[in-house]
Design a protein that fits this description.
One of its GO terms (molecular function) is sequence-specific DNA binding. By secondary structure, the protein is of the alpha+beta class. It starts with a strand and ends with a helix. It folds into 2 domains: 167 residues, Regulatory protein AraC (Jelly Rolls), CATH 2.60.120.280; 101 residues, Homeodomain-like (Arc Repressor Mutant, subunit A), CATH 1.10.10.60. It is globular and about 50 Å long. A hairpin with a 2-residue loop joins strand 8 and strand 9. It is built from 9 helices and 9 strands. Strands 3, 4, 5, 6 and 7 form a 5-stranded antiparallel beta sheet that branches. Helix content is 42%, strand content 24%.
């Protein structure tokens, strides 16, 4: 059932299950993220064989056909949301919200089906730890409704979660910097130093930066900064979180430094960026 946001007088079409039993998946009119923390299932997804072994995330859209015929010591949680949850609302009057034409694009590919998209994006050990933390917070926020920004915080964690899964799903040629990219895509909310990156890649500073320059046109730390600002831009547009909260969510210790870096790279302040996109018609 939808949750009622008493702070903003609206229904929010999301649900969280701490113990997903796979009996009703996929849920009608919902995208579903199922975080499998233990065991495995054997199933058919859209008439194709599927084996999901923990740790894993299963991404389902409402039109998928899932038939589970074996569950082995399974433990899983699920977060479900209506596709309209991707649409960013804007204030038109006091406590009145109206959908805008701005739609969150992060993670949409995870719910689309083609020959390459199995519905189970690859995750690593680092990603599992981050997913466990984010799913815990999602479940807490869905049930607590702690303050007026509870929906924004859910969307914030959803954006970060989907961004990480989508980036880990991208096919890239094997490279010495794969482990560095994994570290950046999972640990960017935390303190990450150049020494962390060089040790991860088993390369010296010059070799690491040379590899990044050839592949991405920037240094390793430059890539980290660009990635943080990319996620920050998504949070600015699709949530009402404060600049300080957003800065800390993407790895900046101080919002002043975040504002300085964002303005230098985007040629507009975070507030101007937010207003430009949030007011789009």
């Amino acid at each position: 059932m939808p949750h009622f946001d008493r702070y903003k007088n609206r229904n929010v079409d999301i649900e969280f299950s701490a113990n997903e039993d796979f009996e009703d998946l996929p849920y009608p009119h919902r995208h579903s993220l199922v975080f499998v923390t233990h065991g495995q299932i054997k199933a058919r997804l859209n008439d194709r064989p599927l084996v999901v072994m923990a740790p894993a995330v299963l991404c389902l859209n409402a039109g998928d056909r899932l038939e589970v015929f074996q569950k082995t010591e399974i433990a899983a949680q699920s977060f479900r949301f209506h596709p309209d949850f991707f649409v960013t609302a804007r204030v038109i009057a006091s406590n009145t919200y109206k959908p805008s034409n701005v739609k969150m694009q992060t993670g949409l590919s995870l719910f689309q089906r083609d020959k390459e998209q199995s519905g189970v994006p690859p995750i690593t050990g680092k990603a599992f730890l981050q997913l466990r933390e984010w799913f815990f917070v999602l479940g807490t926020e869905v049930n607590a409704h702690s303050d007026a920004l509870w929906v924004c915080r859910i969307k914030k964690y959803l954006i970060q979660l989907l961004r990480m899964l989508e980036d880990l799903s991208e096919e890239i040629a094997p490279s010495p910097i794969d482990s560095v990219l994994e570290l950046i895509h999972t640990d960017y909310p935390n303190k990450v130093t150049l020494q962390d990156l060089t040790q991860c890649a088993h390369l010296n500073r010059s070799s690491l930066n040379e590899t990044f320059q050839k592949k991405y046109g920037c240094t390793a730390m430059g890539y980290l900064l660009a990635y943080r600002l990319k996620v920050a831009g998504e949070l600015l547009v699709h949530t009402d979180m404060t600049l300080d909260d957003i800065a800390r969510s993407v790895g900046f210790q101080y919002d002043t430094y975040f504002i300085k870096q964002f303005t230098a790279k985007r040629e507009m302040s975070p507030t101007a960026f937010r207003n430009t996109f949030r007011n789009a018609q």
